[in-house]
């Protein structure tokens, strides 16, 4: 079982809106890869809640652990696409996912995927950290969203994590906070990996692909060319594929190759949870 815990949000692009949030996006892609996933989040008492639950069910995820708040609204994010198709986010505060409660006791061991944004409130941060202790492997996506992702939350999450994903800009920011290295990306990554004694540190670089630092090697993959529609959710698709491949004990280069392939496909689609039928047929 893989727990994916944190925010569910509606990403609003002008007059369009799509359901997303990194935990949901990762859960969707893991489910598409035949992993057993429990999505833990929270929606509001508003009209968006029923739409949200229906959409989650429609994309093949269970709503059993989606809690409903009595007062806080279902999450929303205003997304603006800038130069190079890079999105910027205006994340509405507070939201129902700021109040995620500890779920009923979970049987047996599990893996866990979490990020930084959902830890912006004390309540959800405490819930996430309460779940850390019984996880066999903690997969952490740094996913910086200032001002909601301060250094102290990121650095304490890195202490707990086993596998960490971040992009090239986030790597530079985190290593600057730690004053670990002022060198090039791979040097910074190796310093961060060693500092936290991780199983793997994965760095995405957009159209330039990705690389991973592991206990035995540094591996790279150049990525796949794609006509970008929007990049929202591409990193989540990448991380889900990397997690799936790692748990299936594939070699590190294959983990990166499959992750880049799925991430590129999603970058060429509208929304973070597109139908993967055509992708599967081309795999």
Tags for this model:
283 residues, 13 strands, globular, UDP-N-acetylmuramoyl-L-alanine:D-glutamate ligase, nine-stranded mixed sheet, four-stranded mixed sheet
- The ordered H/E elements are EEEHEHEEEEHEHEHHEEEHHH
CATH topology: UDP-N-acetylmuramoyl-L-alanine:D-glutamate ligase
Give the strand tally. 13
Average pLDDT, to the nearest integer? 93
Taking the sheet with the most strands, its summary is: 9 strands, mixed
Helix percentage: 25-40%
CATH homologous group name:
Ribokinase
Give the overall shape, derived from the CA principal axes. Answer: globular
Terminal CA distance: 25 Å
Q: What portion of residues belong to β-strands?
A: 15-25%
Poorly predicted segments: none
In CATH, the architecture is 3-Layer(aba) Sandwich
Which secondary-structure class do the elements indicate?
alpha/beta
Strand order of the largest sheet: 5-4-1-8-9-10-11-12-13
With helices defined by DSSP (H or I, 4 residues minimum), what is the helix count? 9
How many structural domains in the coordinates?
A: 1
Radius of gyration: 18 Å
Q: What is the CATH class name?
A: Alpha Beta
């Amino acid at each position: 079982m893989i727990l994916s815990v944190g925010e569910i949000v509606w990403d609003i692009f002008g007059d369009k809106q799509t359901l997303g949030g990194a935990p949901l996006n990762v859960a969707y892609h893991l489910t598409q890869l035949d992993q057993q996933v429990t999505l833990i989040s929270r929606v509001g008492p508003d009209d968006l809640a029923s739409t949200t639950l229906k959409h989650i069910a429609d994309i093949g995820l269970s709503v059993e652990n989606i809690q409903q708040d009595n007062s806080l609204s279902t999450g929303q994010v205003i997304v603006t696409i800038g130069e190079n198709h890079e999105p910027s986010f205006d994340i509405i505060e507070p939201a129902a996912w700021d109040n995620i409660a500890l779920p009923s006791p979970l049987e047996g061991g599990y893996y866990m995927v979490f990020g930084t944004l959902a830890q912006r409130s004390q309540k959800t941060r405490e819930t996430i950290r309460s779940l850390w202790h019984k996880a066999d492997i903690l997969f952490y996506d740094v996913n910086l969203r200032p001002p909601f992702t301060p250094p102290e939350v990121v650095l304490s999450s890195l202490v707990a994590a086993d596998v960490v994903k971040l992009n090239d800009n986030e790597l530079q920011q985190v290593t600057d906070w730690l004053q670990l290295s002022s060198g090039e990306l791979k040097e910074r990554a190796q310093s961060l990996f060693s500092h936290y004694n991780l199983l793997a540190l994965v760095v995405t670089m957009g159209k330039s692909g990705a690389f991973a630092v592991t206990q035995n090697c540094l591996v790279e993959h150049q990525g796949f060319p794609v006509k970008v529609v929007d990049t929202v959710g591409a990193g989540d698709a990448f991380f889900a594929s990397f997690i799936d491949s790692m748990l299936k004990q594939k070699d590190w280069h294959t983990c990166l190759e499959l992750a880049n392939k799925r991430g590129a496909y999603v970058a060429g689609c509208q929304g973070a949870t597109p139908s993967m039928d055509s992708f599967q047929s081309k795999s």
